[in-house]
Fold this protein.
Amino acid sequence: MIQFTNVTKRYASGQEALSNVSFDIATGDMAFLTGHSGAGKSTLLKLIACIERPTSGQVVVNGRNLAHIKRAQVPALRRQIGMIFQDHKLIAERTVFDNVALPLIIAGLHNAVETARRVRAALDKVGLLGKEKQLPVMLSSGEQQRVGIARAVVNKPALLLADEPTGNLDPDLAAEVMGLFEQFNQVGVTVLIVSHNLGLISRFQHRILNLEKGCLLSHAPLIHEAPPCA
């Protein structure tokens, strides 16, 4: 599903966010990405979603070499990816239903009955079926995060990317949200989660990718690594 081969990302300022990073995540796998602030975690996710392009090396997502993808093809690629953020990024003046329906509208689904069916199915999966008419401000932080997850999965993506999805949650809610990701993974969705909470992610039996100053270190034998940074 995801393959990085000798990927380096250097910004115009000269900052090198990633250095010679190589790894792969198989379809249907679940993995965690960790590292200190500024290690390159968010940059790596942006490369997968084609928000950024690598300076050198190759990024392949779901069989597509992103070096060859045209700008007009990027929206179709992103429709295969569900993105979840630490701060939810919900539209405050829209109901829970409308927030979750947004990816379907963007994808061009205009059938109201099918939209309602898929939105309610996604909300049911995260335990919020009775909250569809409420505004985000009426929900707890944990509930808002689950709305963000429902929005990410409503379009049935092949890949879920989560950037610090439990950073604002208490330990019990954080474990609950991680459990939701495991449930999606168990039905075949590939999941990559950025988290600095080593105590939490160590409770789950999944691979851990560790970034340090833009270089990839490994906690798992299945990852092929680039040579360590000098």
Observations:
- The chain has a mean pLDDT of 89.
- Residues 221 and 229 are 19 Å apart (CA to CA).
